[in-house]
Every structure is written in structure tokens, then in C-alpha cells.
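Give me C-alpha cells for this 225-residue protein.
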Amino acid sequence: MTMKKLLCLLVLTSFSHAFGQTDMSTKAFVFPKESDNSYVSLKAQSTKPLKAFTVCLHVYTELSLTRGYSIFSYATKEQSNEILIFWSKGRGYTLTVGGPEVLFENPEVTAPVHICTSWESASGIVEFWLDGKPRVRKSLKKGYTVGTEASIILGQEQDSFGGGFETNQSLVGDIGNVNMWDFVLSPDQINTVYSGGTFSPNVLDWRALKYEVHGEVYTKPQLWP
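Here you go.
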């Protein structure tokens, strides 16, 4: 084997290992302490522009009592806050699409929380569900298209594409069951997901997840039912 072929094989092997496909159905990522360098990169199954989406996940942290933190960060080279789910202390949960955000007020919680949020370009309608219960619908970025070639990060907020992390925005706690679709799930479907079912996620699939861990992040059994 030539040196050139050997180098190509090593690169392909390294990439395959970095984004190996794993069934995470009973597992969670654990971020044990504050940092500006610990995070998980997710590789999307689909790279087409998004005219709609739904993201569902579990998160478990005590940070709600002390400061804000990033839950789900989806950035493109054109827009670092293409999609952002964030907890803002004293305010509640925010969803950002293409820069602007909408707020869903909520008291501080320290128990595991299941979040589903969706958006569609045609109407701009945003839905936000907590533990299977919907909040009042809001409107955001009607007519917008979410860009492609995304950097998707758990554990940090991206202030630039794939970086710009700040310790005081990092997640300390557990996150799991991260699934994403390129359409809006119906209320019945969201309740099924909350109860543990799935509807073949076609952007991110927790049962066939491609990811890469950076820094101090551990994979442990889920603590929620």
C-alpha cells in the first residue's frame, strides 16, 4: 500500500470513528461541570434547507436556579443563532430562529424536563411543549428558510460557527432523547414522543445518532423514565 493510500485510509477511519452511528435510546450525555470547551457535535442526516422543523429532547439540570444555559444550538456560517433553544434565568425558555427569539415564560425547575418545539415558515407559527403540555402558540420569522451545512452543538451556545463558547452559557447536567424532524409534529405525535414513542426522525435520530464528543462529556444511563 502506498503512503498516499495509507493516509487516505487513516483520514477516513478517523472521520468514521468521530461520527460513528450509535443507538443512544437508553443513554444520556452528561456535562459534569462548567466549561467553554466541553460539548457534543451532532451530524444531521439531512442537509437540505428547512422550511419547518420539530426538535424534542430531555434535559436535566439545576442551573435554572442560578443562570441561563444553552440546550440546543444549530448554527450556519451565515447565522450563528439559526436555531437556538435556551433557558434564560428569571424569564423562561426562548426559541430563536434566524436571529430573533420568542419567549415562553416558565418557573425554575430542577426535575428532568421534556421539551418539544416546532416552527414552520409558511405561517411563522412556533409551538413549545413542556412535559407533553403545550404553551400558547407564537409567531416568528414567517417566510424564512433555515440554512444548510449546520453545526449542531449540545452543551454550548455558538456565538460563531462551531465556536465562540462561553462558560456562563454552558450546560451542566444531562441531555438525551434528542430528535429532530424537517416537519411539524402533530399534537398526537408529540404526546406519543413524550410517552417514549418515535416517528422516524429524519434530521437527528437518537437511536441512530452520529456524534463527536469534545472535552469532558460522559455517556451514562438516562435518569428519567
